[in-house]
Design brief:
single chain; 263 residues; three-stranded antiparallel sheet; Glucose Permease (Domain IIA)
């Protein structure tokens, strides 16, 4: 009898081991968690550039979310960005204190009410920008020191800790500090935090796009610049100076941006 019991125990143990091995090799039925394999230095991959780009429709003067308008060309408030409808990452601009700086974001001039969408999936940190009274939506992944930021937005529809998907609407472009509130603006930044301005790295948003989207956005960004010049009837962009589409430089430190000097 004891031999029979031992034999049964051995069979049951063997059967359990087989089930364990089978279950460990079986593919999980749960969807993969996009946050589970994040490493602190993993650069984010963008699936859009925050707003819609598109071909110029001369019937309504729209190119995606962008509106070709003489008001942008004739308004003194947009002289700071050289009357550009897309202001390239790394463009030399002059702030409210007339101090030169290198723009460490890609900036868009858009009709008021334009919706802004998340370029990546991640968790939201919502900040109030004191000097302008609008908001910044920062999106990050747990364990990462990289952020994707949509700076100068209003009417946010997300809160701290919300999880968003790429393409999800998070806010509207800001009209803060603009005399003509028919238009707004938003800045897209892709950056890695640090202990000092020299450690903070901001990269060209185009460089962070998913590889399969880059050919599409090469055409869209270059066409937007050319078509805006055609509409304006003058040269505005120097695409030959671009390191990447929509970017004068590949990356900037915060120190370089603030000083206005690229080392």
């Amino acid at each position: 009898m004891a031999k029979i019991i031992k034999l049964l125990i051995g069979v049951l143990i063997g059967f359990g081991v087989i089930l364990f091995l089978q279950s460990s090799n079986r593919p999980s039925l749960e969807p993969p968690n996009p946050f589970s394999q994040t490493k602190s230095n993993d650069q984010p991959v963008l699936y859009n550039l925050g707003v819609k780009f598109g071909d110029w429709d001369k019937a309504n003067n729209k190119a995606g979310d962008f509106l070709f308008s003489q008001k942008i060309l004739n308004s003194s408030q947009f002289l700071m960005v050289q009357n550009k409808i897309l202001v390239e990452f790394g463009t030399r601009v002059y702030g409210h204190n007339q101090q030169a700086k290198l723009l460490p974001e890609m900036t868009y001039i858009l009709p008021a009410g334009t919706k802004v969408m998340a370029p990546i999936e991640g968790l939201v940190k919502l900040d109030k920008i004191d000097w302008s009274g609008d908001y910044a939506v920062h999106i990050t992944r747990p364990g990462s020191n990289w952020l994707v930021s949509l700076e100068h937005v209003i009417k946010p529809v997300v809160e701290n800790g919300d999880r968003v998907k790429a393409g999800q609407v998070v806010a509207q472009v800001s009209t803060a500090d603009l005399a003509d509130t028919n238009f707004g603006f938003v800045e897209l930044a892709v950056w890695k935090g640090g202990q000092s301005q020299e450690d903070i790295i901001k990269i060209c948003p185009f460089a962070a796009l998913a590889d399969d989207l880059k050919p599409k956005y090469v055409k869209l960004i270059r066409s937007l610049a050319k078509d805006w010049e055609k509409f304006a009837g003058k040269d505005i962009y120097n695409q030959n100076s671009w390191a990447l589409p929509g970017c004068v430089y590949n990356q900037l430190t915060e120190a370089e941006a603030v000083s206005g000097i690229k080392k």
